[in-house]
Amino acid sequence: MLEKYTTPLTINGITLDYTAETFVMGILNVTPDSFSDGGKYNNVEAAIAQAKKMVAEGAKIIDVGGESTRPGYERVSDEDEIARIVPVIQALVAEVPAVISVDTYKANVARAAIEAGAHIINDIWGAQAEPGIAHVAADLNVPIILMHNRDNTDYGANLWMAAKADLEKSIAIARDAGIPDSHIILDPGIGFAKTTAQNIEMMQHLDDLVAMGYPVLLATSRKSMIGNVLKLPVEERLEGTGATVVYGIEKGCHMIRVHDVKEMARATHMADILVGKRIFKEEE
């Protein structure tokens, strides 16, 4: 199945060649209540300035979110979410040379975002909350990120096999909607429907996830798994995030989703060299 992602995708003039480097996705939350940066970028000018900063620091993808996904988050209406993200996406497309993804599980929001110029759908429910989102991706011919999620932490005797079955259901929804394999990206869902021990175990199965044959996005930035292991508040989880990023690259992940782009882009570059994904040249 590995041939599924070896053909590079060119989006918005940017080529995502998963064999050549690990791509950095910068997080841009235009929300008042996200767990790490809520309220910081919820106007267009601040959002564009932050996006430009992240691209300058090494992000190739900007992930725009209009509803917090922190534990206990408050759901917002489709209309409110669209009103938050569409002006930002339109400005990003006009001003920032990056691939734009929209972080939503809602079909109507995804359609509005793609029609506003976004290039990728990033769904934290793996097309299982609103399966219509897969039809949006198929109709508009854009890639979709299918994150592992569920409404409980009861995985039985084998967490990986249960999580794999969940992901296979998401893949089936995507395929049935007409999404080609080349437009499917998987995410292990670190921090979602998992205890700290289960998050660690899922991390240890990243190579098995990669072996499913799709590109893998790893999103561990500042998450509670790191805080619980290191006993640190959210603003002090940089080093722990870096450890998870490097570990993920060693396991074969293709993209990382982070808040601290400068530091994680440097860690990613170094890890890419060490695992042989990028080739070091003396003039570097």
Q: Which CATH class is shown?
A: Alpha Beta
- Tell me the quaternary state: single chain
Name given to the CATH architecture? Alpha-Beta Barrel
Q: Which structural category fits the helices and strands? A: alpha/beta
Function: Catalyzes the condensation of para-aminobenzoate (pABA) with 6-hydroxymethyl-7,8-dihydropterin diphosphate (DHPt-PP) to form 7,8-dihydropteroate (H2Pte), the immediate precursor of folate derivatives.
Family: Belongs to the DHPS family.
Cofactor: Mg(2+)
Pathway: Cofactor biosynthesis; tetrahydrofolate biosynthesis; 7,8-dihydrofolate from 2-amino-4-hydroxy-6-hydroxymethyl-7,8-dihydropteridine diphosphate and 4-aminobenzoate: step 1/2
Give a concise summary.
Helix content is 44%, strand content 14%. The chain is of the alpha/beta class.
Task: List the topology elements.
Blueprint: H1 3-6, E1 9-11, E2 14-16, E3 23-29, H2 44-57, E4 61-65, H3 78-95, E5 99-103, H4 107-116, E6 120-123, H5 132-140, E7 144-147, H6 159-177, E8 184-187, H7 196-204, H8 206-210, E9 217-218, H9 224-230, H10 238-251, E10 255-258, H11 261-275
Parallel strand pairs: 3-4, 3-10, 4-5, 5-6, 6-7, 7-8, 9-10
Antiparallel strand pairs: 1-2
Helix pairs in contact: 2-3, 3-4, 4-5, 5-6, 7-9, 10-11
